[in-house]
Design the sequence.
């Protein structure tokens, strides 16, 4: 549409307006709160675009600036909360095989399926339930989020079987979270089968990385 490019310019302008108010010495590799700032920038961009869309042609610049300010503040709050939640989660988990990725707008807890399940099984190993229960405890400390549990496999075997196995394994992890006290209203489970590899399926090491269950923590507005 003809208004797409002007709206994009306005949205970027709103984001730049917000960053212009930030001390440049506090941004970058030496920052103490990189995820807070990243969240602020994500929120500012989204807020600027929404603000521009909510105004008429003559007021889109003002709408973008207001939207950027509001979105930036909300995004910064989410980023700060995720930083705190990530730190607490790292302290609570005692398994180096479990990885935590903070993208600035979500946390991704990745559990290798090789430590969670026996081959072709979708029953969580009892000794590994402790790690999932630690995640559950953290989720209860930080209730303002929804949780997506996503199962993945490597490419060995038939694709339809892998899809079903990934769904069952995601459901098994979701059930542990539920039984540990996380509200079922917050939990969604999905299977992606072999469709979303993060490494090459041509090596044993790559296949092991692809066999995983991810717990994705998505903050919601408080």
Sequence:
């Amino acid at each position: 549409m003809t208004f797409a490019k002007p709206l994009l310019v306005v949205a970027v302008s709103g984001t730049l307006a917000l960053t212009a108010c930030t001390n440049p010495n506090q941004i970058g590799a030496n920052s103490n709160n990189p995820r807070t700032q990243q969240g602020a920038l994500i929120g500012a961009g989204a807020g600027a675009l929404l603000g521009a869309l909510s105004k008429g042609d003559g007021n889109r610049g003002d709408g973008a600036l207001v939207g950027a300010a509001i979105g930036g503040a909300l995004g910064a709050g989410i980023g700060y909360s995720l930083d705190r939640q990530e730190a607490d989660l790292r302290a609570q988990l005692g398994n180096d095989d479990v990885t935590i990725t903070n993208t600035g707008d979500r946390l991704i807890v990745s559990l290798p399926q090789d430590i969670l399940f026996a081959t072709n099984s979708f029953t969580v190993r009892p000794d590994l339930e402790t790690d999932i229960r630690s995640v559950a405890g953290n989720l209860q400390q930080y209730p303002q989020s929804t949780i997506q549990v996503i199962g993945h496999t490597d490419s060995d075997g038939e694709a339809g079987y892998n899809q079903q196995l990934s769904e069952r394994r995601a459901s098994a992890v979701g059930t542990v979270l539920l039984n540990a006290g996380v509200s079922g209203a917050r939990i969604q489970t999905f299977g992606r089968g072999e469709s979303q590899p993060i490494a090459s399926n041509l090596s044993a090491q790559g296949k092991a990385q692809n066999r995983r269950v991810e717990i994705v923590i998505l903050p919601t507005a408080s």
Residues 155 and 162 are 8 Å apart (CA to CA). Helices lie at 4-20, 34-53, 60-92, 113-116, 129-141, 159-179, 204-210. The mean pLDDT is 78.
